[in-house]
Amino acid sequence: MKKNVLTLIVFVLTISFSKGQDLNGAWQSTVTNNKGVSVQYVTIVSGGYFSLAIFEKENGKFIGTKGGALSAENGLLTYTLEFTSIDPDLVGTSDSLPYTFTGDKLHVDDKVWSRLDDGSPGDLAGAWLISGRKRDGEIVMRDTSGPRKTMKILSGTRFQWIAYNIETKQFMGTGGGTYTTINGKYTENIDFFSRDDTRVGASLQFNYELVDNDWHHSGLSSKGQPIYEVWSKRLE
Q1: Binning pLDDT at 50, 70 and 90, where does residue 10 land?
Q2: Which CA distances in Å does 3 have to 6, 15, 57, 178?
Q3: How far is it, in rounded angstroms, from Cα 219 to Cα 225?
Q4: I want to staple 57 with a disulfide (CB 3.0 to 4.6 A). Which of 40, 49, 103, 144 is the partner?
Q5: How far is the C-alpha of 119 from the C-alpha of 50, rounded, in Å?
Q6: CA 130/CA 82 separation, integer angstroms
Q7: CATH architecture, domain 126-233
Q8: What's residue 2's pLDDT?
């Protein structure tokens, strides 16, 4: 009996430790720049991919973004960039950075990151590519393996979408913030939007459902136009 109890305690501690060391979810770091402005860094890690968004904390003014494939092993974060708004020549390049945990803080890239969520509740957590749209009442699917991509990456509470081309290295736009999924309603609260800072603070609500592992998303766009999109999980 004592052996079984001891085994259970070790198991629970192992799970708790592993959970605390898991990179999946959303992280933030706030830095004051040389002009005295608080700059927010928000990173989402989900489905083997990551995105980093940088914007002014007070007004959501967009500064920059980058992201791509990510793996963690032996204390090193290794990534390959698929997009960056800052220097397109970096697209396709890889690098590794050491990282450590101190309690619930993540130390990487000379910054201390605080966890925003651990990937839960996570109804839509993952990295998704737009794979279809409804036109004239019919869903028209598209190939997601091409160089031009629109990706939406979500943790448990944060989202970011990015439009880019891995072949031309062009960055077309991004936006993100917090989201909820309640009773079939997906609601986005915009913290930054590279194309229009005036959209910061807006909330958009859509209908959503998962059909054969695809995310069906419908409602009105930020411009008030009806949309029906299909998003598929990234597999590569």
Answers
A1: very low
A2: 5, 18, 52, 45
A3: 8
A4: 40
A5: 13
A6: 16
A7: Beta Barrel (2.40)
A8: 42
Please determine, looking at this structure, whether the domain spanning 23-117 carries the CATH number 2.40.128.500: yes
- Model confidence at 219, in pLDDT bands (50, 70, 90)? very high
DSSP the chain: -HHHHHHHHHHHHHHHHHHHH---EEEEEEEE-TTS-EEEEEEEEETTEEEEEEEETTT--EEEEEEEEEEEETTEEEEEEEEESS-GGGTT-EEEEEEEEETTEEEETTEEEEEEESS-S-TT-EEEEEEEEEETTEEEE--SSSSEEEEEEE-SSEEEEEEEETTT--EEEEEEEEEEEETTEEEEEEEEETT-GGGTT-EEEEEEEEETTEEEEEEE-TTS-EEEEEEEE---
Tell me: pLDDT of 7 over 50.
no
pTM for the predicted model, two decimal places: 0.89
Q: Where, residue-wise, is CATH 2.40.128.500 in the chain?
A: 23-117
Ranges for all domains in the chain classified under CATH 2.40.128.490: 126-233
Which among 54, 15, 17, 25 is positioned nearest to 114, based on CA atoms? 25
Give the model's confidence band at 236: pLDDT under 50 very low, under 70 low, under 90 confident, else very high.
low
**Residues 100, 76 contacting (CB under 8 angstroms):** no
Structure-token pair, residue 72:
């963690």
Sign, Cα dihedral of 123, 165, 108, 61? negative
Dist CA 155 CA 43 (whole Å): 10
